[in-house]
Batch of 4 targets.
Target 1
Amino acid sequence: MSVIQLENITKTYKIGEVETRAANNVSLSIEEGEFTALVGPSGSGKTTILQLMGCLDKPNSGVVKINGQDVTQFNSNKRADLRRKEIGFIFQFFALIPVLSAYENVELPLLLNGVPARERKERVMDLLSAVGLADRAKHRPDQMSGGEQQRVAIARALASEPAMVLADEPTANLDTANGQQAMDIMQRLNEETGTAFIFATHDPRVMSHAQRVVQMRDGQLVDDGNHDATILGAAR
Amino acid sequence: MALSKLWVIAWRDLARNRRRSFFSLLAVGLGLALLILLNGYITGVVEDALQISIQLETSHLQLRAASYEDEKVSLQWKDLLENPEALAAEAAAIDEVEVAAPVLWASGVLNTRDDSVGLQMYGIDTTSALYAPFQETMVAGEFLTPDDRSGILIGKRLADSLGIKAGDNVNLVVVNADGEADESVFAVRGLFSTGIFKYDDAAALMPLSKAQAFTGADGRASAIAMLLHNQDDADTVAARFQNPDVATLTWEDLNAIFLQTMDTAMSFYIIMYFIVILIVAVIIANTLLMSVYERFREMGIMAALGMKGRQIMLMFLFEATLLGLAGIVVGIALGSLGVYYIATTGIPIGDMGSAAGDIPIGSTLYGKFNPSGMVWLSFWTLLITLLASLYPAWFASRLQPVEALHSS
């Protein structure tokens, strides 16, 4: 079953007098447990597509379905509910709440979902162990390296057992070793939990992990296939 | 979501920007301290002036002839009380009454060889505790005895201005009960210094019986003055005197002009209060708005995690509450210190009090602790702080996640 379906999505932004079409009649379906890379040059519309999938924004036209349900016209509260339960986010900048410790950052989605204390504690520690940061639980973001922060963000994205995790350029600010480690962890958690991962990236290291690579250019899907074919296609 | 976590975030966000938080809570604190100080000052001055007026002038309750008019200081028999001793004894027998005594008022002119000055004459029961405030502030000579037939007391300031001292003779002129001028020579037995210009500059005390003889009042009195154990009983005690020829006037009636003046002064104080509180509100709103601007991206992250607008709003209101409460603690501490200073040391105003006319004000003004005032002012400060934070909080809650996430 599709965790998310985009049907004929169009999204335009107006900056001053200039109108930019960031997504142009895009249709895309992501299945349960997929590990998908959304690739393309800067300005190709990757981030816009992720934001529409993540219910952070609404399309100008077209339909967004999550778990088969049309969520296009949900109000801000309903969209917040949906994000809380079904969607995990990982951003390019290490988007942790700076005043909260690693533990508290991972705990936040569980608190928002009203998970009981004991279960919360267990789950947070499991996730921190899974990303290799159990011993850093009490550290605040400014006491951790970029790689460690991004691993906390990965743990947080998976905290409420979402149907999908949307990651926007997750390795862009990491060095090779940390980027590789982050990708390995995400791939492992994808396999263990069955959560779908969708990455916006132009990093070949990320693409090489993907089962499916969706190529975008100028707001349109130009290719959708396995990564070897797509990377070769992109190179041609 | 557990509210406790929102409190934690609010608290840590304040701690993150220690300097800004400190100055904001200092603004709340100083604002409140200023209000507490103003309130303590006004409470002190008003209550002091009222109590001085009651002690020295009006007492808590007066009985007068129904036809007596204050402004005329009439000595006509129809305007005076017959048999005042009996009436005073009747009043003194009432449980709520602490002390009661007859008094005779007259307008007079005091002449020395070189000068003359208009003053108010008080024929008093020299043994009555009503006149303890004068007795206690004698600075020269002696207090009057009941059978003194030629002695008066005047204020030291008056004596100094006329160049006379205790023991000197002065000439006193009154318009008597028959409307004719009468004069007599009196010896200044002593000088009092109540600290209140109205008395120290323009009052002369003499024994009641002498005043009655001098003015032709023939055993009558202008009023029976009463001090009560509790001033709130004035109306109850007044109701005991059901005589159509006798008017009862409570301390509130007798100080009506003063109380009205203070009400007017109070509205000025309220304007000051609003100005101060408005400044505090602007500072708080500015602090929180800056905090919102700095944390756009965090708001975006929280929204992405599924936090709702109202939860984000609540987080900022919690921050304002913490700032407000800490500011209130500082304000109460600083304000109390200030009130303690003006309550013990006072504010010297020199001769300015003499310009206050009928309002009995001394040369030093004292403040007074007003706990209920402090509670109210603190409550209002917190409320205004929260109201001032509503806009920044609302603004934060309305941020679109996409815009917030893309801000730098």
Target 2
Amino acid sequence: MADLAPVTAPTPLVRIRDLRLEASTQRGTAHILRGVSLDIGRGRILGVVGESGSGKSSLASCLLRLLPGNITRLDGSIAFDGTELLGLDEAAMATWRGARIAMIFQDPMTALNPLFTVATHLVDVLKRRHPGIGRADALARAREALVSVGIADPDLRLAAYPHQLSGGMRQRVMIAMALLVQPDLLLADEPTTALDATVEAQIVDLLEGLRRKFSGSIVFISHHLGLVAQLCDDLCVMYGGTVVETGPVAEVLARPRHPYTRALLECEIEDDVQGGRLKSIPGEVQDPVAPHVACVFAPRCAHASDRCRGEVPLPVEVGDGHRVACLRLGEIG
Amino acid sequence: MSTAGPPQGAQHRSAQREGTPVSTVSVAAPLVSLQGVSVVFGGQVRALDDVTLEIDRGDIVGLVGESGSGKTTLCRVLVGLTPPTSGSVSVGGETVARQLASQPLAFRRRVQMLLQDAVASLSPRMTIGRTLREPIAIHSLPRAQAEQRLAAILQRLGLPADVTAKYPHQISGGQARRVGVARALVMQPELIVADEPTAGLDVSVQGELLNLLLDLQQEFSLTYLLVSHNLNVIRRVTRRTAVMYLGQIVEQAPTQALFERPAHPYSAALLSTNPAIDPAKRARRIVLQGEIPSVVNPPPGCRFHTRCPVAQARCKTDAPALAEAGEGRLVRCHFPYSLSLQR
């Protein structure tokens, strides 16, 4: 997949800078994103990994600007192909959703409307993208989209309601909807987590195949490092509402620099050795209510110094597109 | 996997057995024995079909398979919650049905279950202490002795003594999991059935729980049946693994031998889907076509033939039996080893 990387680095499709998201909760202000800076390359698949509560889904919500009502702060910058998304008013933002930005959710059953057939779902997205399209034309394209995601009897499935489909088939319908939109940016939030292993393999296979037909960029959110390693071009590791490390996936996984990325990789057990102690990261994820005055990983980091407990690290470029936010980077190698 | 290597599974297993705390009971008799167990719901849902499985005392057996393959039903049969429609289930040499009829409480102490959602398994209206003491009262265990044991277990699991005064919403998810373990251990069980104990856990904390379960197995001479979707966990902690498909065990083998060289085409496909971080460990993905059929109307012949990439004419009509395939392995396939993992 490295051969798809452009020779000269063009401007990224999306440039996120110092994105901050806060919400008011009963216990005080929750810092959900604590200054996220990240690029999403054109035509590339960016894998976002992190533990629960690391802010990966919130990042997707910010890109769509679909946020709950208790948000008290959203600032920084999301420059999407030259347009500042955070500067758009609600009406303008609405024209972006389902057109230039689309999303595939984790649970296709709740994302599809149980009252409408598959055909209605697909025709609706087409009409939104191409307002003048005729019904017959739309249906023909919907049928074509189902075939392209590997649904064998498209006419039967067009007439079906979501509950009549299996989980794998529902997720295929979601992917077909996203394809019809042909968005510049597709957000996929744990799209295979709810599926069984052999069905997950079918969907991963499909997503790999789609790379050739789809010219846009994909943000693939997952807690599964192995899956990200296999499917993505770039990797972004999140922890406690910050990006601790980002870069080309093979580079980051072969030469992780941030202590959190290293610790996370050590917890993975894919060796053939049976028995022996398993690794874990001691301590608990930082409380989102805690103020952001230090490295968020410092309380669990084996290398933390006094400086780490009193200063917020900024991302530093350590290689081609490989950035790490660690104050002790030079010392720990 | 191009180099399959010598079949060293059986050897490996006996080597491991030496290190395990072997009970004074005859080593030959397995702790758990399921013979031809079927469970049919409502006359047509064959949740389990002719399942035969033995678990040796002190062993850790893994159970893998997709939703609807019968893993949970098998667990329920083992703990006595679902009676088998046919076949026999025995724990410690006596059938579960007989034990439930003559001394139900003693049987329930013998077999304990760890539930997938630890937080949800605790009543929100009861303090942790009340939850943990409830079984002591139900089983009329000697109070002073049980209290002592409970205190020792809480300490062993690293739970603060004041956790007993708290309600489930006041403790962390990690503590809730350990409370679930404590609740099982208070009964001094012989067998623990753990249904997806690491599901929903971040990889950064799953190691801690698995280490704890492995330590406890040694300290308390426990036997585990471990159900998991996580093939890495199964490979790392279990000694034998049973693979289920549509209510049947299609293969059971020493774990290492299974992962090195799966004999059943379904096992091969399942193992090939496990994404690896290290490109060198990545198997070529075997993508099965179609959906998992329903157990209400399972395919004739071999149940896997509708999705099997190497099925032959015989598979469509002739149902294979679970047969010996060397290295302490049982396989339900007419043509074992015909689909292999490729790196």
Target 3
Amino acid sequence: MATNNFLYYLTFRPEAMAAFFGMTQPQTLIDKLWAAHEIVRRQDGESLLWVDRHYVHEGSFHAFSRLTERGAMVAEPNLTFAVADHYVPTRAPRTNIGNPEIARMVRQVEENTARHHIKLFGLDDPRQGIVHVVGPEQGLTLPGLLIVCGDSHTSTHGALGAYAFGIGASEVAHVLMTQTIWQRKPKRMRITIDGRATPGVAAKDIVLAIIAKIGADGATGYAIEFAGIAIRALSIEGRLTLCNMSIEAGARCGTIAPDATTFDYVKGRPFAPKGPAFDQAVEAWSRLNSDNGADFDHEVRLDASEIMPIVTWGTSPQHALPIEASVPDPARELDPARANDLRDALSYMGLRPGTKLTNIAIDRVFIGSCTNARIEDLRAAAAVLVGRVSKVPGLVSPGSSAVKRQAEQEGLDRVFRDAGLEWGESGCSMCVGINGDIVAPGERCASTTNRNFSGRQGPGARTHLMSPAMVAAAAVTGHLADVRPLLVGRKL
Amino acid sequence: MDKFLRLTAAACPLDVTNLNTDQLLPARYLKWPRAAGLGKVLLQDLRFDPDGRARAEFPLNRPFWREARIIVGGRNFGCGSSREAAVYALYDYGIRCVIAPSFGDIFSGNAVQNGLLTAIAADEVVAEIIATLGERPELPLTVDLEQQTILCGDRSYNFTIDPVSRLRLLNGWDDMALTESFRDRILAFKLDDQSRRPWARPGTTG
């Protein structure tokens, strides 16, 4: 058996064969993560990959129905974790949910996980929160893991050096039944951010700058590694924001080589390795980086010092511009398809070409979502809001129940309330609006979320994406605004 | 899953860049089980006004395209949310093939799992087909997956698709059967991996 295993190892894993015969080629982080999970590679190029963590939520009900139809069981219930996040009320009572359809969605995930012996962080659990906040927070997300979830923002977890991507319901069912997934290896893109971000410029601005540069399909077919000193300088919260929005550039996933910042973050988290096991893990994790001379299929470079606070004006995350700019004019666009796209976006957003972004008045703000509702995000917004009043109504929904408790300990909830904003509960909330918290038709919302798609925050809702500090700036001025003057003399 | 070999059908142009899955199936319908009829609410907010009246100018509402089984779309078709129900909505409406210059990654993965062909054609090919359909809306297209060709009037164009996706669609293959055949390898990997990466399993004290 041992010999068979060894032969199999050499035959089906070319990287292993190369290493055995001393032919090691420099590898990228993406190559290393991929190789560590590859069970078999077929001649046609598809690989069967081992899944270390599988996260499920209320929306995974299609997949559980598939299991029921087949009479199948969950292969590795201990590697699957569930949360209630997409449908949970964030401003209404959470026990005795009023809307029967929403109550059914939450009940379904409780029943499905109980039946299959999957741990659920449900509504009554202090660990409840948005899946992409809870995973890292609980130490379930670790460097070197392969993580999937039936949610496109699963790319978030790459921030810790994991290989993490969103999948559809059929694939969720497959992972539940086999703990594996078929994938074709994506091309590798490195996005290097040199320089140092200036005060008032956050991870959200960096990622919007990237998407504006490469486009909403600029990374389709690629896995991204984010590198460079500006990335190294980011906290884990910032890295999570960055990797979260990799999908908005079309990437399969985004990842960052784990470093001391990562290990410090992971250490002591509930599900993370402890004691000698942790030290052993750090030793392995320290090798998770791109070798010198490793080959990428595509390279992109930006300088953080040139990035300004950014907002989106249109209906795609690529419709992003520095706050000092004006709404573009389709008449000046030479490409007819692009001109059409701009016209449609302007029409939906109710904007005229040439309008200065800072002249766009807003009706409400939302601070929340898997992109920007971690403690650091709430602190950044609160730093702008303290001692000021919001000119528009708004909701703050912390990314997890743990973030909520932490924020309350720090008194951030009082800052938001004193500014006139509503302090809510944790969930996906007004980012996707399926829990009933929506932006009214025609209303304009400054939002820390990830998608400004038409109808995303509710039918007819108009979304402008930006960082938490920029949302706070919009709140206190009543229009899209540069946060930097509002930070003068404030402790950040 | 139904096989896809060759299809001759009416084709509806949807010349929209970044047509995302939120548009294909608005989030408020994600609670619906598939049996509720997701095809009815495909592209709901583009096909219908807020009062539920059909928007006459929307391509899929035009008489000659209402029964279309092919959509000819713009760049990055199906980007955004991973919701597989967006594919169910297309399929249950009757769509069997989408032709576009590029597709959202998760969307094309979901499509192949459900027998929906995502045919990648060059920007200029898509533009030509859309222009032709504008002049001759009733002209059916023939999409041949074996040959990877699109016949549009007297013109024939090539399209590309991931070769594995092509085989899956041609044969109506199901992933599960395939994975089952590798059961021993999965088990061997798992055992080997537990000693190789002991830290990869979640702690039990959480």
Target 4
Amino acid sequence: MSKVLSNQKVDVLIIGAGASGAAVAWSLAETRMHILCIEQGDWVNPANYPSTQRDWEMAGSRDYAISPNIRKLKADYPINDDESPIAIANYNAVGGSTILYSAHFPRFHPSDFRVRSLDGVADDWPISYFDLEPFFAVNDRNIGVAGLAGDPALPLHAPPLPPVPLGTMGETMARAFNRLGWHWWPSDTAIITREHEGREACANIGSCNVGCPKGAKSSADVSYWPVALRAGVELKTRCRVREITVGPNGMATGAIYYDDNGVEHHQQAEIVIVACNGVGTPRLLLNSASSLFPNGLANRSGLVGKNLMLHPWGNVQGIFDEPVDRFGPEGSCMLSQQFYESDASRGFVRGYNMQITRGRGPVLTARSALWRGELPWGAEHHEVFARLYNHAIHLGICVEDLPEECNQVTLDPELKDANGIAAPKIRYRLSENSRRMLAHGLTKGVEVMQAAGARRTETVGPIRMAGWHLLGTARMGTDPRASVVNDWGRCHDVHNLFIVDGSVFVTSGGVNPTTTIQAVALYIADQMKKRLANLFD
Amino acid sequence: MSPSTLIVSDHPLTLLQQQTLTRVLEIIIPAEPARGLPSAGEVGVPDYLHLHSGDYWPLLAMDLDRLDQLAFRQFAQTFADLSVAERTRVARLMRHDDPGFLRRLALETVTCYYQDDRVMLALGLEPGSPAAKGHVAHAGDFSLVEPVIARGEIWRHTPK
């Protein structure tokens, strides 16, 4: 057996440097505790982003693919998602999956925290929107959220920066929503639209989803981490944690990790914080089984890995006679929450978000049209292409996924990562409620596209390569028999072990979750700071 | 187009296959001089394949041979020696019998084609990577939210 190096004990060990790990590190830095974050990926150099290269549109199918099973980079671990209609998406680096996110930044609604009380399904969260409201605001400032105050679909909040451009595309769709009398609003977006905290404003490069070379998209590596590091937080990259260790008293003692050279280290810590997302976190806890925790660490409830929620996703493409506009942020410039809140007459409970996104660039326009048999060979090629490129608008449908114990993350008995650590296995299916909601969303999406003047529409859903939102697998609650962490993120079973990522979500809302994940992480960090004197009681 | 990076002696296709490839690329996307658009035979597709799809050469070589054999059966000439109309007919026959015929070549061709400087300029785009300069975007009319505001709050109130 190789020698295990024992590192100097730290006060706080954070595992994972993505959206939640970065936010919690930033918040705890003011305590002046010795805080170390370890991350299996590395810093990404913006100069290497695909958008600095001619072939940028194709990078999404190679090193910047959203599936780790396609990328297969050294930082990645494989995920067996064969038993799921939705493939898992992530990115392993400082900044985590925010490196590739579209920066669409809508908040959960107050009703999302009271699903059982309002609709009789799933469970209520032990905290409310209003508990998180101050942390949403802090996050908006730290991230530099762009948006327009006054959205009637949410309690009043005022994003600090002006909204991203609507463009001709947004105007076209806004008029259509108005024609139908439906809600729409300029999206809250984690893209800085003017200089913010030393970062330059967005230049509408339009390649957000394969990384922003300008640093205007507020991925965690360019927003939170520079500040946290200046405040004294230590960050080690290319270090993959195998397991969290526990002492005879059942408290966490640190973590064993492999460095870039495969050397095993034991990092001791007074407090361990897990921030590895809704798949990575249960994987780590299940891999940390011991004689005290034979079913996985902090898993006396049996709920670690269960209740996985993924947000089934649909897309409606509208093709227009008139050109729309090709330049602007790649993600959403506007959303509609007309069908977000429950309405029993629709045949399902809860609801969904609609978000408008730009059509594809020339390469992906041509490839997808060719694949569908729409783009011919020969003299007609140019004419058909001209009618497609810069004539498409997309409408994404993000369906609220309700928790079900049968949707789960377990350990694959055979598949392992490069360090020999068991890989996660996903078992997931769409509920009937999700299917009905998605079908409703696709129908309504077509309706609004037609109202906008689309000459043709196409629908697809659920989309397989869309498993970005990894939620619910170490849920929050007050009852240790029915939850993994308490109402401020501390594991019921291990009082110096905290979870701060989307795993703790009780329900999924119907929107992209990153701002809510970061608000929850900031809330938990704040609770820890308030309770430092008796944190483990 | 920049000079080919393929060393002639290392080319994975025979000379005949290379000629067939050029001609079939011209069938997939012909030139359209009025719009300043070159044909796909002029934009360096073999180099692109060399860089990104090395595993495709053996299958491509077989398919080009099939095309040439059909050309010979139909017209007693190589594919490259046929007229444009004859080439188009042969390619159409092949694709009629095998709808997947050269589909990957077509995908790689459009991928390469729509990155070419002349094509990007013809589409009104700056050649090269999008990060070079960025773009000016039309802000749009935010007063369009007024009817939405007029309809009032739509979120469900919950106890604080």
